[in-house]
User: Which sequence fits this backbone?
């Protein structure tokens, strides 16, 4: 089997390239390999769609959580501020 | 409290943009949620917030006012979070979690030709198109699946996808080689996606 053909049928390698592509750029050869693979592999096309969405969801998760008002309880905050005042007084 | 007032005036003379007397009220919740989304351990997140304020007090004189107070405090916290990542991911005992996670994906692909094994095929399950309003329920599952990842993998993954750190920073902070970085990124996604498919349907 030629090198290109091996890649064309290799989902493990294709999913690796899908991940790499989202962070870094692929080499020309890698781009070609991935294109050929995805043209013939609907399972990896699904993987790619989901992978991209997952990265976005993970990114959003942070922002939504920070907007969702996670708060510390008052007692902890009071103690913390007292601690800071103590330190300030030492100076 | 005269002593405390004294401290304020000294501080505010030197540092017009810094007011430690208001730190907790102004920034504690923000810093807490920052820490919690990255390490998902309430107690540890509280500790980090406290450590951040105390460390900031030590460094108050170095604050040059080039960034906002919150940005400056967040930067201190961020370094503390990375320390936690580093400790967690280098702890010898924790390495077993990587072995387990690798085991999980052993039969995702046929070892001879690299094909997906049919039982592990990624199936469409409603997350193929991006929807920022994806339900809370899905976010809960996403978080749970992330927590199942080995500490090192989760650290690499969050530093890349939440903090958008450069690959070289991640590699040097967490002491992973460049090639291992890509292996981790790939394996993390394989397990995370599989976990989501299993738990969402």
Assistant:
């Amino acid at each position: 089997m030629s090198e290109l053909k091996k890649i064309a049928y290799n989902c493990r390698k294709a999913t690796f390239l899908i991940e790499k592509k989202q962070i870094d750029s692929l080499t020309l050869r890698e781009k070609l390999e991935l294109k050929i693979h995805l043209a013939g592999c609907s399972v990896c096309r699904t993987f790619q769609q989901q992978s991209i969405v997952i990265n976005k969801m993970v990114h959003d998760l942070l922002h939504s959580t920070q907007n969702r008002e996670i708060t510390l309880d008052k007692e902890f905050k009071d103690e913390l501020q007292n601690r800071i005042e103590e330190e300030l007084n030492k100076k | 409290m005269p002593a405390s007032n004294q401290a304020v005036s000294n501080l505010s003379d030197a540092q017009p943009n810094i007011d430690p007397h208001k730190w907790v009220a102004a920034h504690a919740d923000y810093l807490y949620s920052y820490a919690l989304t990255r390490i998902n351990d309430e107690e540890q997140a509280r500790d980090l917030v406290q450590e951040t304020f105390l460390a900031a007090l030590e460094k108050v004189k170095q604050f040059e006012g080039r960034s906002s107070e919150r940005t400056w405090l967040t930067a201190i916290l961020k370094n503390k979070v990375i320390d936690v990542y580093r400790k967690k991911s280098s702890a010898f005992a924790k390495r077993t979690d990587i072995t387990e996670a690798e085991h999980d994906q052993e039969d995702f692909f046929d070892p001879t030709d690299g094909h997906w094994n049919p039982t592990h095929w990624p199936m469409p399950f409603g997350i193929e198109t991006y929807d920022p309003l994806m339900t809370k329920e899905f976010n809960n599952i996403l978080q749970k699946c992330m927590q199942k990842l080995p500490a090192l993998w989760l650290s690499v993954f969050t530093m890349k996808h939440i903090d958008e750190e450069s690959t070289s920073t991640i590699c040097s902070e967490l002491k992973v080689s460049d090639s291992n970085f890509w292996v981790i990124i790939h394996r993390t996604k394989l397990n995370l996606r599989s976990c989501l498919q299993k738990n969402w349907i």
About this structure: Chain B has nine helices and no strands. The radius of gyration of chain B is 21 Å. Chain B touches chain A through 61 residues (CB under 8 Å). Residues 92 and 98 of chain B are 11 Å apart (CA to CA).
